[in-house]
């Protein structure tokens, strides 16, 4: 454990937060908010950055707080972040780390903009060839639903065990956005499609899947209870027995959704 020092807000929209450590200036901890219009909307994603002795000749080492969940093809349950800018994925030219040109802010913005995208399915190597095809749309829609579920489960883990130095950020973010998260879940339960290529009506189903809605019914009451504990108002509407005919049970991390890597 290290003593955190000043928190820095990056980006005008206040969607990236960074904190350094007084006794380890080679370490940083960052939190970023998932973008609107993506399966990660209103989620919070935590990363640790280590500046090696060879920095900036070498890129920072980045660890993702995954809680064992595969929310994205580029974010592994082990914490590995697969990104050409970090030299952990193939790339060329401006895609790879340059000691003269690349920055820590560029790394964080790249993760937020290039990894946590509206269509994470196509981040898998070679899958962009299927973009716009009926099969690609179906698979992208299914992946987006699973990414959404895993983002909700990640929120639960963060609320239960916020990383040191970001307890306040986690609490403040979900107090501010918790009602929006629940409202989105309510919309999904009515059939609204999760954002992504599969939702454009071009050959795919226009509503979300029954399996996704069933999994949501298991997750939402637990998430609403966690939000209520930190002071989010209106959570009682999402408790057990309030979401329709399906029975509601506590979230089961082993079965609430299929692993995104399948």
TrEMBL record:
Species whose genome carries this gene: Oryza sativa subsp. japonica (Rice)
DNA-binding is among the record's keywords: no
Domain UBC core span(s) in chain numbering: 1-156
Top-rank lineage group of the source organism: Eukaryota
A Pfam short name: UQ_con
Name the UniProt record assigns to this protein: Os05g0153132 protein
Keywords: Transferase, Ubl conjugation pathway
Keyword Heme (UniProt): no
Gene Ontology MF terms in the entry: ubiquitin conjugating enzyme activity
């Amino acid at each position: 454990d290290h003593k955190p020092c000043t928190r820095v807000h990056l980006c005008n929209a206040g969607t990236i937060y960074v904190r350094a450590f007084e006794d380890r200036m080679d370490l940083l901890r960052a939190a970023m908010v998932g973008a609107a219009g993506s399966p990660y909307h209103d989620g919070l994603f935590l990363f640790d950055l280590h500046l090696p002795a060879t920095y900036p000749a070498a890129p920072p080492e980045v660890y993702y707080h995954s809680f064992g969940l595969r929310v994205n093809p580029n974010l592994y349950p082990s914490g590995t972040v697969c990104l050409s800018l970090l030299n952990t994925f193939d790339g060329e030219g401006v895609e790879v780390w340059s000691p003269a040109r690349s920055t820590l802010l560029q790394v964080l913005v790249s993760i937020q903009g290039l990894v946590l995208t509206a269509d994470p399915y196509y981040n898998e190597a070679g899958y962009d060839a299927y973009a716009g095809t009926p099969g690609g749309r179906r698979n992208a829609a299914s992946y987006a639903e699973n990414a959404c579920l895993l983002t909700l489960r990640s929120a639960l883990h963060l609320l239960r065990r916020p990383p040191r130095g970001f307890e306040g950020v986690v609490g403040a973010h979900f107090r501010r956005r918790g009602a929006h998260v629940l409202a989105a879940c309510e919309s999904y339960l009515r059939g609204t499609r999760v954002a992504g290529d599969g939702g454009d009506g071009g050959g795919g189903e226009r509503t979300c899947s029954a399996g996704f809605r069933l999994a949501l019914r298991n997750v939402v009451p637990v998430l609403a209870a966690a939000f209520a504990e930190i002071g989010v108002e209106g959570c009682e509407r999402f408790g057990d027995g309030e979401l329709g005919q399906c029975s509601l049970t506590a979230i089961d991390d082993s079965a609430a959704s299929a692993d995104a890597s399948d």
